Amino acid sequence: MESLPARIVSLVLGKSDEDFETLIRDLFAYQYAHNAPYRRLCDYAGMTPETVENWTEVPAVPAQAFRRFDLSCIPIASTAAVFFSSGTTADRSSKHWFSDESLELYEISLRTNYYSRFSRRDRLFAVMPNPLDAPHSSLSHMLGALDAEEFAGNDLTDFRIRLMAATEDSRPITLFGTAFGLMEMLSLGSVQLPLGSRVIETGGFKGRYRELPRDEFYHLLRDGLSVADSHCFSEYGMCELTSQFYSQGEAGSFSGPRWIRTRCIDPITGRDAKSGSYGLLRHYDLTNLNSVGVLQTQDRAVIDDDGNFSLRGRAADAELRGCSLTAEELWSRS
Predict the structure, then answer these.
(1) Cα–Cα distance measured from residue 101 to residue 88, given in angstroms and rounded to the nearest whole number
(2) How far is residue 223's CA from residue 162's CA, in Å, rounded to a whole number?
(3) Domain extent at residue 212
(4) Average pLDDT across the chain, whole number
């Protein structure tokens, strides 16, 4: 029988139609056996691979736990890479450790997901540091794995000059960057991208001195880059999560790849939020191989019947108590 990583890769590449529930439960069993902090959480909750009867029962880890624990299935000394969160607060940044196998799976999955949505023909420009200069940035690593042609680094003026030179070619450009980076670049002046070009923003105003409402920001993108609303996209990802979600247009909702499932959890009941009501996003990601497969976030959202969601801001720490064991409770039992 194929190994678990190979089975997940087969599903990602569309070479297998293996049942998601089987894979997420097998991933749970693997992580329960090899990830000690996660096993403590599961034991405290009374949930083990033998007692879980449905994929929705696999215990979720709060995203904040990645700040406190080395959630790795192999010794840290043997890992191939570690990505940090932006660390915009005084708390420790989250750390997501990758084994060789999980790093390879990450790159396969991000390419598969991205190229199922966006053209390989486009020239890719990244408003972010080069991965060589930011080895602990998962976003920079992602754009490096996608073979981005140009990176902004710390010099947006020079990057804008290079971008404007590239517009002389009629080949479409995909401009990928944080909301803050894109806004700062456009403060230097507009750039008319070639016909058919796209812009993909990743959020990223948190902790900055300037922030725009979403409608004003998308107006800035459309006018400043000469792109239609249908060619403006948003990417939702996290340091703690291996997979990415994308939405199209200012009012679009986020959708993920076939190897991830998302639920909106009512913070009061701990069950699925009622249709049309907000909940806190919980992701079941098969490509989170070396850490934990189920992540409880603080992201408020409304989800539809197809599993697509629209964000509604961030929840307070207290709201997580109805959803899962908090990082603080797990820490007190370590």
Answers:
(1) 30
(2) 20
(3) 117-248
(4) 90
Domain with residue 325: its CATH number is 2.30.38.10
| Strand boundaries in the chain, DSSP class E | 61-62, 81-84, 95-98, 123-127, 150-151, 173-177, 198-201, 232-236, 245-248, 260-265, 279-285, 294-303, 309-314
**Does residue 170 belong to any structural domain of this protein?**
yes
The alpha-helical segments, DSSP class H, found in 116-271 are 138-145, 156-166, 179-186, 214-225
CA atoms within 13 A on the CB side of 39: 11
Tokens for 116, please give them.
């199922």
Is pTM beyond 0.85? Reply is: yes
Query: Is 253 a domain residue?
Result: no
Predicted confidence at residue 333, as pLDDT, reads 52
Give just the sign of the alpha carbon dihedral 186, 191, 192, 196: negative
Is residue 96 one of the residues assigned to a domain? no
Whether 257 and 250 have beta carbons less than 8 Å apart is answered as no
Backbone dihedral angles phi then psi of residue 84, each to the nearest 5 degrees: -105, 150
Nearest partner of 59 among 74, 48, 72, judged by Cα: 48
Is the domain of 277 the same as that of 214?
no
Report the number of distinct structural domains present in the chain.
2
Do the domain assignments include residue 111?
A: no
pLDDT at position 329 over 60: no
Q: Is the dihedral of CA 187, 188, 190, 193 positive or negative?
A: negative
Extract the tokens encoding 272. 């699925």
- The span from the CA of 208 to the CA of 179, in Å, is 11
Are 152 and 178 within 8 A, CB to CB? no
